[in-house]
Every structure is written in C-alpha cells, then in structure tokens.
Amino acid sequence: MVTRTVPAVLLLLLVAAGCANNASETGAAAPAPSSSASDVVDLPVPTAKTSGPAGEPGRPNAGAKTITGTVTAGVEPNCLLLTDDSGSHLLIFDDPAMRSDAAVGSKVKISGHAEPGMMSTCQQGVPFVVTAVEKG
C-alpha cells in the first residue's frame, strides 16, 4: 500500500508545483491585462464620397451614371434595389436623407456611381452610391 501512495503523493506535489504562480522567476508570464471601458475605441463610420482624387473635392467620379426605374425591396431588411438594362443595382445613399425619396415601389431617376468592391450584407445587386434622386 505504501508503494502506491508514494507515487501518488509525488505526482500531486509535481502538479501543485507546476500550477504555482511564482512571479520572482525570470521569464514568468505576465498576467493578462484587464479590460475596462477606457480600452474601447470609437472608430469613424465610413461614408460614401463623391470627391475625386485628393485636392479635388466635389469632382464626380469617372464612373458617374444615371439610372431610371422602379425601386424594389431586397431580400434582406433595409436593402433597396433598382434594375435597368445593365442589371440590378443595390442603392447606397451618399446622404441618408435621400432614402425617403426612393421608397419601395416609387419610380425614380438616380445619379451616382457603381462601387463593385464595396462589401454589403444585402446579397443582391452591384452597390451603387446614389448622389442624387429625382422622383418621377
């Protein structure tokens, strides 16, 4: 019985020694920094810009175009689409106030430019940054 107890006690001591936190040892891992409200950083929200290269604000992008059609709802909430001969366009508004002029079912004429590389959760159409909306 003693022969079984000695290895068990030794194993227990080794495990306890391995778990001990001895900060005086060199190379000991530092404790993880605690998280606090001061660690939160507010990042700016990206917005669509219609300006050209740096130093030329207000110059429309080279791909500017006008599309006419009827606004339809996308499969995801808050996604608006406009379809023309070139395909389906996901409407991204440069100015959120313009969104009310492009309600689902309304006929509109929009101006803007395509942003095919823009990420979206809408899963439909090529993102089209709208810079102007005309009802009709």
From TrEMBL:
Residues 28-38 have a biased composition (Low complexity). Residues 1-22 form the signal peptide. Keywords: Signal. Residues 25-66 are annotated as: Disordered. This is Nucleic acid binding protein. It comes from Paractinoplanes abujensis. The lineage of its organism: Bacteria, Bacillati, Actinomycetota, Actinomycetes, Micromonosporales.
